[in-house]
Records
---
Amino acid sequence: MPDTPHHAKASTGPATPHVDLRSVKPTDARARAFSGMFKIKPGQKVHVLVNSPDVEREVMKWADEIGHRFLRRDRIEDNGASHVALELIKMEARR
């Protein structure tokens, strides 16, 4: 039996997955958000990253139509560039 102490891991849990729509045109935002959500399980939180108010509006409209739950909106500053992270919970698709 080794006599080295066991240390607790300093993690805060699994990283929240994200769908990056920062370089997407507003006309393509809905389709890209839809396809990006396939890797996310229902009930899981996801951050959708956008850098345009038009893309943000389109994603919010899409999320409401599909039934995903909106949690919050965070403005993120990253090396002089700013973007918005929309936190959603993926829900089962409405039928």
Note: The chain has two helices and four strands.
---
Amino acid sequence: MVIFCFLQIPSGVFSLFYHFRLAKTSKKQADDAALSFILGVEIFNTILWLLIYIIIFCCQSSFISPLFLWLMAGICLADAVAAFFFYFRKDKTSTATFISRRIAKCLTSRAKTVKSRSDAITLGFVSCLPELLFTLPLYITCSAFLQDENALPRAILIIIAVVIAVVPLFVIRAFFRTDHNLAEIQRLRVKLKPHFRFILLLAYIAATITLIDLAIINM
């Protein structure tokens, strides 16, 4: 859940989107559009959680084996390295991420041209796609462990995960609603970027160590 909170592409797109909406519409209309964007992110997370959970449920016998745990530990370790060294581009004055500039320009263009709630929902949904490299292993691992009948009610855990994933967007929304502008938000994000990198690194390493420990226990 920590990792979901500190990944930055949806947050960056959301900041631009809110800024452009404020320039074109009233605060109320911009805020309504922002909630639609957040709904799009929630829809993406919910669909992915349920889809992966169902797939793993249908193939349950092949999951939570030592081989699966070692494989996911290796992927999490690779993501830890990638998150620290490659997630953000080497530009101390921006929060540009690993995605290609073509994709970044496409997302920015879409953020400028949103005209309806459905467009805002679609943009929120699409903004999550580039981060599947970092989030998909988490969805798979968590969904596999949710098959455990001793786990807390699965629906509650998935709802909590979906809500936590959009907490950063609500924080940015609160900044805009209290009359902070994009430049101020961007300066804060740039200032916090080194902390984001270390938090992502530590969170992925913690996940890796946990998975290795479980793999050894189950061997």
Note: The two ends are 27 Å apart (CA to CA).
